[in-house]
Amino acid sequence: MRIAAPGKLNLALAVVGKRDDGYHELRSVFVTLDLMDSVRVAPHKRLEVRNSLPIDGEDLAERAVKTLARAAGRDPHAFVSIHKRIPVAAGLGGGSSDAAATMRGLATLWGVDADLIRIGALVGSDVPFFASGAKAAFVSGRGEQVRPLPAPREPMHVVVLRPPLRLRTAEVFSAFALSDRGAAARVDSLVAAFEEQRVTPDVVRTFAANDLLAAAERRCEAITTWRVAAAERGIPLFLTGSGPTLFAVADDRADALRIARILKRAGMRAHVHQICM
Ligand code: C5P
Question: Which residue from 23, 30, 121, 219 has the fewest beta carbons nearer than 10 Å?
């Protein structure tokens, strides 16, 4: 069985507090990205997970198999093969999406009717969004509360920019200071715009904000350099997740191609994508 595993962007992300368990309380608008990994799951005599690219740290797909197997009361035996296209440790949710796709595939293969959002939360904070299958959602708590939002009526184009380095989520959260907070009202405004079906590129550019930006900039100088260079060319860049990936919101496909051309000329790696697909 083959399952597509899309990447994500956080159009807006507010950190509203720090919890006693060390995690942070979030409010965020997540959308899927048309940049996708492909996950194949099959029955097997033991657990075997293959990735087409080296991954960083723990393999979330392996953890997904073990966690679902435990919940279903069966052996964690499966073959999982992941063809990666989403860059690793980029803030695009690739590993979490692979884990959710693995759980969805295995649940079907095993005939298990499980609450994949709840089980996904045991695997990683970004997994519940992908497990929900939503194209857009308001995500809160540590990431385990997922409220699907209607996708925008028009296709939305973005330009995704990836500084050439990896950032660990935990590292960025540890650089976060409560004084960095400020995006919560914009998250709420963007959620309302989605719910009322009045999301346009202008609306997203107005409310896009990320409380992890300052922390990510403290850890990665390229984020500041690229944002300043783009701003000088009239293009605001926003951070997704804990970074380092940045994105620009375009009016349409032609505008996205124009933005990508300008930013490539300025030395950035830029790719045109669609969201909520
Ligand atoms: O849940 P996940 O393993 O993806 O989180 C990675 C790290 O990111 C956590 O160990 C924690 O340091 C940080 N994190 C956080 N608050 C969240 C999500 C992640 O502090 N809501």
Answer: 23
Domain at 84, CATH number: 3.30.230.10
Number of domains forming the structure of the chain: 2
41 and 161 together in one domain: no
Percentage of the chain exceeding pLDDT 90: 94
The average confidence (pLDDT) of the chain is 96
Ligand 1 site residues, Cβ closer than 6 angstroms: 23-24, 26, 124-126, 142-143, 169-170, 173
Closest by CA to 163, choosing from 235, 237, 234, 231, is: 237
Its domain, for residue 104, covers 2-148
What is the 197 CA–ligand 1 centroid distance (Å)? 31
On whether both 160 and 97 belong to a single domain, the answer is: no
Nearest CA to ligand 1 atom 13: 170
pLDDT, one tens digit per residue, over 62-87 is 999 999 999 999 999 999 999 999 99
For 34, other C-beta atoms within 10 Å of its C-beta total: 16
pLDDT tens-digit map of 155-185:
999 999 999 888 899 999 999 999 999 999 9
> Do residue 111 and residue 179 come from a single domain?
no
The Cα 119–Cα 137 span in angstroms is 18
pLDDT tens-place string over residues 192-242 = 999 999 999 999 999 999 999 999 999 999 999 999 999 999 999 999 999
Residues annotated catalytic, as ranges = 8, 126
Q: How many CA atoms lie within 13 A of 43 on its CB side?
A: 5
Q: State both tokens at 17.
A: 């507090």
Question: 113, 148, 183 — which closes off a domain?
Answer: 148
Q: Report the sign of the C-alpha dihedral through residues 259, 261, 267, 271, in that order.
A: positive
